[in-house]
Amino acid sequence: MKSENFETIAIRTQVERSLHKEHSSPIYLTSSYKFDDAEEMRALFANEKEGNVYSRYANPNTSEFIEKMCLLEGAEDGFATATGMAAIFTTFGAFLKNGDHIVSSRSVFGSTHQLLTNVFSKWGVTFDYADLDKPEDWEGLIKPNTKMIFVETPSNPGIDIIDLEFLGNLAKKHNQLLVVDNCFATPYLQQPIALGAHISIHSATKYIDGQGRVLGGVILGRKDLITEVMNFARHSGPSLSPFNAWILSKSLETLAVRMDRHCENALKVAEYLESHPKIKLVKYPFLPSHPQYEIAKKQMKQGGGIVTIVVEGGVEGASKFMDGLKMFSISANLADTRSIATHPATSTHSKLTEEERNIVGIEQGSIRLSIGLEHINDILADIEQALKTP
C-alpha cells in the first residue's frame, strides 16, 4: 500500500525483510558484503549493478534511513553522514574548489562559521555573509565565481527566516546551487526542495533522533548532485554507522507526533514570555511579533521547538536565570525530549567575536530554549521560578 501521508511513510518504509520475516528492521552490523562470484563483484564496483559493496559506501540500515528521508522531503537521493557538521563539510567539499565563492546567511551555526572562516578559506574558497532580514542585498553579493548559496532557516540561535521561494528563484536566475540547512524545521515542518532548494541538509542528531542518543547527518537532493556528494564522501569517509542509522530510522516513526508536541509547547512558552517584564525579547516564528512571521506561516507547517529569548541584565541575568532552572537541562544540545537551556555567547557561538554575535542578534543575555515534551505546566513553572531567582 502506497501513501502520501507523512506519518505512514515514516512508519512503513523499511528495508526488505529477511527470511526470518522480522516485523522491525534488524541492525546490519557488518563492515563488508559477500559477492556471488567475481563478475558480480566487478559489476558492483563498476556501478553497473546496484547492491552493497562496503559499509563506508552503503549499508541496509543507512539505505533505509536515506529512503525515508528522501520520501519525507521530496528528494531523489541522499547520503547519510556521521554528524550534521559532516553533512555540511561533505556538501561544501563535494561542490567547491579553489577560487570558488559562497554567499551564506550570516546567521549560521558556530561550527559552520568556522568552516567558512578557518577551513575552506585555507583552500582558496571565499565567502560573503548576507542578512536574512535583508533579502534585497543577496543578489548584489553574487559574483562570477559564486557557486553556492547557503542558508539556515530558521537560523541558530536567532530564529531568523528568509523566503526560500525567493532564494530558489534567485539561485535559478544566476545558476547557483541553493543549499538549505533544514535542521530546526525538519521535513515535517518545511520542505526546502519543493521551494527551490537543490540540497537540504539535516543534523539528524537533533529532531530526527529527538532523544539525545546518537549523532548523524543527512544530505538530500537531486540524484546527479548526490552522486557528486557520494564520490567525495566515499573517499573522505564521513559515513553514518549502521547502529546510528537504525536508531534514526526508528526515530522517524515518531517524528510527526513529537514535533506536534514540541511546537505546541514552544508556542505557549513564547506567548507566556513575550509579556514577562524580565524578558527583553522573544523570537519564535509563529509569534505575530516575529519580523518574518508571514514568511514563516507561508513555508512552515508550525513554528518549531526552539524559542530564543533575551533576558534583562546581560550575561549576569542570563546566568542567574539558567542557574535557577531546576527541570531544564543546561546543555549545548537541542531538540531533545527534555527541555534544554543554552547560552550561545559562551558555548555554541563563543568562537564568534562579540561584534559578529551582535550582528546576528546574539546578545550577552540571549538564551536558546529547546522546548521539550514535558507537560507544559511543568515547563512554564520551571521558567517562572527561575525568573524569580534573586
TrEMBL record:
Co-factor(s): pyridoxal 5'-phosphate
Modified residues (N6-(pyridoxal phosphate)lysine): 206
Database matches in Pfam families: Cys_Met_Meta_PP
EC number: 2.5.1.-
Keywords of this entry: Amino-acid biosynthesis, Aminotransferase, Methionine biosynthesis, Pyridoxal phosphate, Transferase
Main EC class the enzyme belongs to: transferase
Pathway involvement of the protein, from the record: Amino-acid biosynthesis; L-methionine biosynthesis via de novo pathway; L-homocysteine from O-succinyl-L-homoserine: step 1/1
Reactions accelerated catalytically: O-succinyl-L-homoserine + hydrogen sulfide = L-homocysteine + succinate
InterPro entries in UniProt: Cys/Met-Metab_PyrdxlP-dep_enz (IPR000277), O-succ-hSer_sulfhydrylase (IPR006234), PyrdxlP-dep_Trfase (IPR015424), PyrdxlP-dep_Trfase_major (IPR015421), PyrdxlP-dep_Trfase_small (IPR015422)
GO molecular function: transaminase activity
Family indicated by similarity: Belongs to the trans-sulfuration enzymes family. MetZ subfamily.
Complexes and interactors: Homotetramer.
Described function: Catalyzes the formation of L-homocysteine from O-succinyl-L-homoserine (OSHS) and hydrogen sulfide.
Stated name of the protein: O-succinylhomoserine sulfhydrylase
Origin organism lineage: Bacteria, Pseudomonadati, Bacteroidota, Sphingobacteriia, Sphingobacteriales
Gene encoding the protein: metZ
